[in-house]
Amino acid sequence: MNTTMLFNLSYGLYIISSMDGERPTGCTANSLMQVTAEPNTVVLSMNHDNHTNECIRKTGKFGVVVLAEDTPPSYIGGFGFRSGKDSDKFDGLEYDMKSGVPIINEGVGYLVFKVIDSFETSTHTIFLGELVDAEEIKGGTPMTYSYYHKVIKGKTPKNAPTYVAEEEVKKEEKDVWVCTVCGYVYDGDEPFEKLPESYKCPVCMQPKSVFKKK
Q1: Which end of the chain is more exposed for a tag (fewer CB within 10 A), N or C?
Q2: What pLDDT does residue 152 have?
Q3: pLDDT tens profile 179-189
Q4: What backbone torsions phi and psi does residue 162 show, to the nearest 5 degrees?
């Protein structure tokens, strides 16, 4: 079975946020879909291992920031490749509280939902959310999951519903430098070996030393 056919399904890319007590937290996600217009309702799929899952359960609400194509990749990596259990993902970022949830000042716009129902799969919680707040932030073109993969060259965290094991994806037969933390593939004009030691992965901001040649 060729599970990469699932890549043909269309997704956006979002930062899902909630509160961990008095501390803001969140994660990058792509499995969000509107299911009704009256009332405005969405479904969100969130892995059981994601700290944000637990926080949404406790608070009963979650925020969504729709990322734009020009959103710095560091936002995607910062929220997507480390856990909110042991790191403050909002540290150093500008954000505002909107209807009780933290919203970063980046992206096309934001939405806030209250949880009205949920159900469990073996690995994920499906949250049903009703819209309570929404406004534009910066506007722009929403980033699609396809754009993230093809233009930014980003990879999928293992907790994501759309994760496909690396061995199932066809690879080009050439040496490439890959970030071992987030899977970003360096394809710049400058040979990787000649990049300065201060170079950092543009997605997860890890140092040059974490890259491996494949």
Answers
A1: N
A2: 65
A3: 888 888 888 88
A4: -95, 10
Instruction: Please give the residue that has the higher pLDDT: either 213 or 154.
Output: 213
| 167-176: long-range pairs with CB below 8 Å, 24+ | 168/3, 168/4, 169/4, 170/4, 171/214, 175/213, 175/214, 176/213, 176/214
pLDDT of residue 1: 84
Token pair, residue 9, equals 């399904």
Structural domains in the chain, CATH included, are 7-150 (2.30.110.10), 175-213 (2.20.28.10)
Distance CA 181, CA 74 (A): 13
* Residue whose structure tokens are 């040649």: 213
Q: CA 127 to CA 172: how far, in whole Å?
A: 38
Q: What are the structure tokens assigned to 154, written together?
A: 């980003």
